[in-house]
Amino acid sequence: MVFALVLITLALAVSLEVIIAKSRKLSSNTLPATLPVFNKSSLHTPEGYYFSKFHTWALPEENTVKVGIDNFAFKALGNIRINEITPEGKSIKAGDTVIEAEVHGQKINFRSPVSGIIKSVNKLVFNKNINDVYGEDWGLVIEKDKNPVSSENLFSGSEAFQWMKSELRRLKDFLNEASFTPQAVGVTMYDGGNFVEGVLSTLAKETIKDFEERFLNEQNNG
Predict the structure, then answer these.
(1) Sign (positive/negative) of CA torsion 143, 149, 153, 154?
(2) In the chain, domain spans
(3) Most buried of 116, 169, 182, 194, CB within 10 angstroms?
(4) Bridge-based pairing state of the strands 195-196 and 37-38
(5) Element (H, E) at 109
(6) Tally: H helices and E strands in the chain
(7) 133 or 220, which is more confident?
(8) What is the pLDDT of residues 84-123, one digit of tens each?
(9) Topology of the domain comprising 36-222
C-alpha cells in the first residue's frame, strides 16, 4: 500500500512538472520578455533636429542639411534595411522619396523633409539593418536653398516630442484596426494594450504597406 502511494505521488509530481514546463513554453512564445515595450519613453527627439510628418529628420549644418529616419519609424518597424538612396547631384523637393528600404520583405519609402540638391549619400547604410538612426545611420546630405529649415513645415523641440506622442496614439489605433492572428497578438501585445518594439516586422507585409500610407505620406497622416 505504501509503495503504491509512493508511485502515485511520483506520477503526480512528474505530471505537474510537465504542465509547468508547457506553461512556461507557452508564456515565452506569447510574451517575449527579451523584446522591449514601445511606449512614449521610447521616443527621442534630439535638440537641434527638425522632424517631418514623413518621419524623417533634418539636421542643419551650415549650408547643408543632414537627413535620416526618425526613431518612431525605427521603433515601430524594426529591422529597416536601406537598399537605395537618391543619388548625389539630383534636385529634390520636400515630399519626394529619397530612401528606399525593406522591412519584413516589404519595400517601403521614406520622403525628404526639405527641398534642395543632394550633396552626398551615406553609403555605409546600404544592405544592413540600421540601428543608430540619429548617429552613424543617417541617410543623405542635402544642399539647401536660401530658405532656412525653420521655415519648412517641420517640428522641433517640445513640439516635436508632443507630435511624436500623438503619432504613438495613432499607431495604437492603427494596430487595433489591423486584423491580428492569435499568433501575432501573442508576439506583439502585452497587458494593457502595449506592444513591443518592431511590432510591424512581426505582422503581415500588407500591414507595413498600410503603415507607409498612413504614417509616411503627408497626405494621409495626421
Answers:
(1) positive
(2) 36-222
(3) 116
(4) antiparallel
(5) strand 106-111
(6) 5, 12
(7) 133
(8) 999 999 999 999 999 999 998 899 999 999 999 999 999 9
(9) OB fold (Dihydrolipoamide Acetyltransferase, E2P) (2.40.50)
